[in-house]
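User: Can you predict the 3D structure for this chain?
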Amino acid sequence: QENFDLVITDLGMPGLAGWEVVARIKAIKSSTPVALLTGWANQADVKLAKESGVDLILAKPITSKDLTAMVSKAIQQTK
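Assistant: Here is the predicted structure, written as C-alpha coordinates:
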Protein backbone atom coordinates (compact mmCIF):
# COMPACT_ATOMS: atom_id res chain seq x y z
CA GLN A 1 0.00 0.00 0.00
CA GLU A 2 1.41 3.34 -1.06
CA ASN A 3 1.46 6.49 1.02
CA PHE A 4 0.60 9.80 -0.57
CA ASP A 5 1.63 13.25 0.65
CA LEU A 6 -1.51 14.80 -0.84
CA VAL A 7 -4.46 13.82 -3.03
CA ILE A 8 -6.02 16.56 -5.17
CA THR A 9 -9.44 15.81 -6.63
CA ASP A 10 -12.20 17.73 -8.35
CA LEU A 11 -15.71 17.87 -6.97
CA GLY A 12 -17.47 17.52 -10.31
CA MET A 13 -16.26 14.47 -12.20
CA PRO A 14 -18.16 12.06 -14.43
CA GLY A 15 -18.91 8.71 -12.85
CA LEU A 16 -17.51 9.36 -9.39
CA ALA A 17 -18.13 12.56 -7.44
CA GLY A 18 -15.34 14.17 -5.47
CA TRP A 19 -17.19 13.42 -2.23
CA GLU A 20 -17.01 9.69 -3.00
CA VAL A 21 -13.31 9.92 -3.85
CA VAL A 22 -12.68 11.61 -0.50
CA ALA A 23 -14.71 8.99 1.37
CA ARG A 24 -12.81 6.13 -0.26
CA ILE A 25 -9.41 7.70 0.40
CA LYS A 26 -10.24 8.43 4.04
CA ALA A 27 -11.59 4.88 4.50
CA ILE A 28 -8.26 3.47 3.35
CA LYS A 29 -6.06 5.89 5.26
CA SER A 30 -7.72 8.69 7.20
CA SER A 31 -4.50 10.64 7.66
CA THR A 32 -4.01 11.18 3.91
CA PRO A 33 -4.63 14.88 3.23
CA VAL A 34 -7.20 15.53 0.51
CA ALA A 35 -7.61 18.81 -1.36
CA LEU A 36 -10.82 19.51 -3.23
CA LEU A 37 -10.96 21.71 -6.31
CA THR A 38 -14.39 23.11 -7.05
CA GLY A 39 -16.08 25.56 -9.34
CA TRP A 40 -19.00 25.71 -6.91
CA ALA A 41 -17.30 27.08 -3.79
CA ASN A 42 -20.09 28.37 -1.60
CA GLN A 43 -20.58 28.07 2.14
CA ALA A 44 -22.71 24.92 1.86
CA ASP A 45 -19.98 23.21 -0.14
CA VAL A 46 -17.32 24.27 2.38
CA LYS A 47 -19.33 22.89 5.30
CA LEU A 48 -20.10 19.61 3.51
CA ALA A 49 -16.49 19.30 2.39
CA LYS A 50 -15.16 19.65 5.92
CA GLU A 51 -17.74 17.16 7.22
CA SER A 52 -16.67 14.75 4.47
CA GLY A 53 -13.03 14.83 5.51
CA VAL A 54 -11.67 17.32 2.98
CA ASP A 55 -8.59 19.03 4.37
CA LEU A 56 -8.23 21.87 1.88
CA ILE A 57 -10.61 23.54 -0.56
CA LEU A 58 -9.63 25.65 -3.53
CA ALA A 59 -12.05 27.37 -5.90
CA LYS A 60 -11.45 27.17 -9.64
CA PRO A 61 -9.99 28.70 -11.62
CA ILE A 62 -6.71 28.44 -9.74
CA THR A 63 -3.34 29.97 -10.38
CA SER A 64 -0.01 28.23 -10.06
CA LYS A 65 0.61 30.42 -7.01
CA ASP A 66 -2.63 29.18 -5.39
CA LEU A 67 -1.75 25.57 -6.18
CA THR A 68 1.77 25.94 -4.79
CA ALA A 69 0.42 27.50 -1.60
CA MET A 70 -2.14 24.70 -1.21
CA VAL A 71 0.47 21.97 -1.63
CA SER A 72 2.81 23.72 0.83
CA LYS A 73 0.01 24.04 3.39
CA ALA A 74 -0.93 20.38 3.03
CA ILE A 75 2.65 19.24 3.46
CA GLN A 76 3.10 21.43 6.55
CA GLN A 77 -0.08 19.99 8.09
CA THR A 78 1.23 16.45 7.73
CA LYS A 79 4.50 17.14 9.52
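The chain has one domain: 7-78. The two ends are 20 Å apart (CA to CA).
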